[in-house]
Amino acid sequence: xxxxxxxxxxxxxxxxxxxxxxETLNIRNVTTEIPDEFHGxxxxxxxxxxxxxxxxxxxxGQIQAAIMLPLTVAFILLGGFRWINDIAQATSDNMIIQGxxxxxxxxxxxxxxxxxxxxxxxxxxxxxxxxxxTTVKTFVADILKGLLLTVLLGGPIFALVLWxxxxxxxxxxxAWVALSAIQIFIMFIAPVVIFPLFNKFVPLEEGExxxxxxxxxxxxxxxxxxxxxxxxxxRSTKSNAYFTGFGKxxxxxxxxxxxxxxxxxxxxxVLAHEIGHCKRGHVKKGIAISMASTLLxxxxxxxxxxxxxxxxxxxxxxxxxxxGLFFFGFLYAPISMILGLLGNMLSRKHEFEADAYxxxxxxxxxxxxxxxxxxxxxxxxxxTPHPLKVxxxxxxxxxxxxxKALRKIGS
Length: 411
Hints:
Elements: H1 3-28, H2 44-77, H3 80-91, H4 95-128, H5 136-167, H6 171-194, E1 201-203, H7 208-219, E2 227-230, E3 241-244, E4 251-255, H8 256-261, H9 264-279, H10 282-304, H11 308-312, H12 321-362, H13 365-378, H14 387-393, H15 399-410
Parallel strand pairs: 2-4
Antiparallel strand pairs: 1-2, 3-4
């Protein structure tokens, strides 16, 4: 049997088994006893609800994985990729057009297969626990907008990468340069062009909250390009806040659900955390690490993209470049996983640093703790994740660890 195929199938089985073990350990790690920090915040009924939410989500994820694994394996072994490639090559003699057809069909299949899971997650699971506010109209509109963006942005980018890899010396390096430039450009325009397609961004109205945020930012010598409230409530009751963009498109976004459920002091603490990421250089570091990871990926891609065995593993004769880009994704998975682990470790460190910055500069660690507690309860977060789950998947430290660190600052 093809060695590439053996490796890919073994890797898929390993990932499924690892996920099964991690999720089982995570479920077994829950406790019916409310942690001391959350006494008076969680009552017994709501804490039990959070654990049911975790178990239902875990069960749903395991069922989805158990369905997708054999479907993917069957698609590979029964010649699904070969069938798509035959259609693509029959469409045109131009390699780039063939690639767009190949990628478009794969995207359509992935969308159709994933649709039932998305429907169940939104309209059954999230609805069951009182989170869902998404209407059918919004759900469909989100899918169509996502597809439109994929066609208008993803298609040209994919075509550009194909052209570079097939036409230029040191193609992997130039492909990285082009993709990095595009990535920065998209980060710049996303807050004003892409994100508003999905949510309404309204400048935060004048009042106590806006004045408090502006006063804090001025004290930290941080220039605010915009403070916006977004209509997160049209999809979910869950709360969030985030920092996005840079330069003149730099924005701080607050979910309307967050504003409704938190005091002014708590919200300033949340925003101080986001500003802390910027002040501590986390955003620039994140961009640099992302670019370095992409450079590594393109270099390794250059070593395998012309290997006939990789294509043969998926039942394709020859080495059509566009197909190789998709096949390489299967091959690159273990490296991507290792980079993800390292990235999560760094991200958790950055979260502690941003928390510390917020606590020190607002001189109100208690308000930050209060905000974290409310967010956890409002989102029915798992308070006691298994350490292996945290190590493999968490980009943020568990909330109890964050609270413990904040209490040390306030002591």
